[in-house]
Amino acid sequence: MKSLSSLSNYLSIFFLAAYFPFIQAETLNTNSGISFSVIQTAESSGTLEALIVDEGSFFNVRKLVHNAILVKHPKGDFLWDSGIGREIEDQMADFSFIEKQLFSIENIKPARDQLDDAGYSADELKFIIPSHMHWDHASGLEDFNGVPVLVQENSLKEAMAGKPPGFIASQYDSPEINWQTLTLNDINYEGFDKSLDIFADGSSVLVDLSGHTHGHLGLFLNLKNGKRYLFIGDTTWAVLGVEKNKSRPGFLKWFLNVDTDYNKNAQVIDQLHKFQKGNSNVVIVPAHDELQQENLPHFPNFSQ
Ligand SMILES: [Zn+2]
Ligand SMILES: [Zn+2]
pTM (2 decimals)? Predict the structure, then answer.
């Protein structure tokens, strides 16, 4: 009997040891529970849908939005994009007359103002992750000086050498910006080659969507209630682009040069298109699609 008992002890230790990595992995992957809120910081004065996406309607006028997304996590909150910031008027002085008309925006309410008014302290923010550094995503960064800004190295490099209308250097020339280099792992997540599970709990996962700019990011938010979202920045401006597998209208690149690598971005759209077909439960959210975002919780309301 004694020997049987020690055998069973030995076996349980063996099994514990064998399963420990899995137990640990499971613990790490326990979604800690996140919620998010869309902070609408401005909207465009109106653009024909045909200018937003190839084969878009010439009769639909779209009012694209410029937003920051506040994500609440037990380990600390973060902002995805910063939206239009307090200094936008000065920043836009770098645009030509035509660019000013093309990018005309209204109903400007910077994220920092909305958070301050609601009594939300910026100290709660652990970091800010811009999907990319274009002017309409980086405009509010200096409103949060001191809060770490996480970007991939190639994204920051491109921004630092960037010119209007895509990039406005004065938006991120403050020495008080706390830059932190973000490095994604070579771990495939949902078919995307590179990823970073931000809190190591599966709740918030970054993937590389380079094409529109170098180091452009996408963000999966996986809520505890099973709802899933994929924020895709400017890969497409409207979800119609993903649904129909269409890029921005080709003629845009002749005078605006919107995409750093048009063809690479088209491949990302193709990948998203296929991903959406196989994962209809995931809500894909382009940064500026006002219709898609209408259904999302807006600050001060949060998702469950
Ligand atoms: Zn962009
Ligand atoms: Zn944008």
Answer: 0.89
